[in-house]
Specification:
It is a single chain. This protein has 8 helices and 7 strands; from the N terminus they run ββααβααβββαβααα. It has helices at residues 20-27, 34-47, 58-66, 70-77, 130-140, 169-185, 195-201, 204-221, and strands at 9-13, 16-19, 53-55, 87-93, 107-113, 118-122, 153-156. The protein has a 5-stranded mixed sheet, sandwiched between helices. Strands 1-2 form a two-stranded antiparallel sheet. Strand 6 (118-122), helix 5 (130-140) and strand 7 form a beta-alpha-beta unit. Helix 2 (34-47) packs parallel to helix 6 and helix 3 (58-66) crosses helix 5. The model has no long low-confidence stretch (mean pLDDT 93).
C-alpha cells in the first residue's frame, strides 16, 4: 500500500480540491490557506444559498486587488454581478507578491452592505491588513451598489474580535463570514449592522472549535 502523500486529494467539492496537507493544517495550530477558506465559503453558499449574498473566493479577491488594468478589472467583475448583491464578503490577504502563490502572513475580511452603501473591514490583528483592505475597496467600490448612488464608504470595525496567537487569522475570517452570512439570512429584523452578532458568536473558544468542526465537515463529505 502506498504511503499517504501530502498532495493526495481527499475531497473535491464544487470547484475546490482539498488535499491531505489541508487536513494537516486543520489538525495542528497552523495558518489557513486559500483552499480551506474557499472550501468553507463554497459550503455556505451551496448549503444555505442566497441570491442576495456573494462569498468571493480568496483567489478572486486577490486578483481584483492587484489587477493593474481598470478595463480588465471591469470586464472581469461585471459577469459576477456584484452590483446586484446586497451583501458581498471578500477575504483579504496581505500578500503583495503576485508571483507568489499562497503568500502573505495575515487574513482579514471586508464586507460590503448595499443598503448602507459601506465596506466594513474586520481585522483580528489590530488593523494589520488595513492597507490591502483599502486597496481592494478602491479597486471594486465603483462597481458596487446602485448606479445612481454615491460612492460607497470605507469603515474599519474597531472592536472586531481579536486573535490571541499568530495563526488563527483565517479561522477568524471564516467565523466572521459565517456570522455575517447568517445574520443577513435571518428572518429577524436587521437593525443596523452585524457587529453585535459577530461579537457574540466569534469568541476565542468558538474559533478554536472551528478547526475540528471543519475537519468533521470535510470527512462527512468524503
Amino acid at each position: 500500500m502506498a504511503k499517504p502523500c501530502a498532495d493526495d486529494m481527499i475531497l473535491s467539492y464544487n470547484d475546490v480540491v482539498l488535499r491531505r496537507s489541508d487536513l494537516d493544517i486543520l489538525s495542528g495550530p497552523y495558518y489557513l490557506n486559500d483552499r480551506l477558506i474557499e472550501f468553507y465559503f463554497s459550503y455556505l453558499a451551496s448549503c444555505y444559498p442566497s441570491r442576495d449574498i456573494s462569498l468571493v473566493p480568496p483567489s478572486i479577491a486577490f486578483w481584483m486587488m492587484n489587477c493593474p488594468d481598470a478595463r480588465s478589472l471591469r470586464d472581469f467583475i461585471e459577469p459576477l454581478k456584484l452590483s446586484e448583491k446586497k451583501l458581498v464578503i471578500f477575504p483579504i490577504n496581505n500578500n503583495d507578491d503576485v508571483e507568489r502563490a499562497e503568500g502573505g502572513t495575515h487574513w482579514s475580511l471586508l464586507a460590503f452592505e448595499k443598503t448602507a452603501n459601506v465596506f466594513v473591514h474586520h481585522d483580528s490583528w489590530g488593523g494589520l491588513n488595513e492597507v490591502p483592505a483599502r486597496r481592494l475597496y478602491e479597486a471594486v467600490a465603483g462597481f458596487m451598489g446602485n448606479s445612481n448612488s454615491s460612492r460607497a464608504q470605507y469603515q474599519e470595525c474597531k472592536d472586531s474580535p481579536q486573535q490571541a496567537n499568530g495563526y488563527d487569522c483565517g479561522l477568524y475570517v471564516v467565523a466572521i463570514a459565517r456570522a455575517i452570512y447568517f445574520w443577513y439570512r435571518s428572518e429577524q429584523p436587521r437593525d443596523g449592522f452585524w457587529f453585535s452578532v459577530v461579537k457574540e458568536q466569534v469568541t476565542s473558544s468558538a474559533v478554536t472549535g472551528l478547526r475540528s468542526e471543519m475537519l468533521g465537515l470535510i470527512k462527512s463529505l468524503q
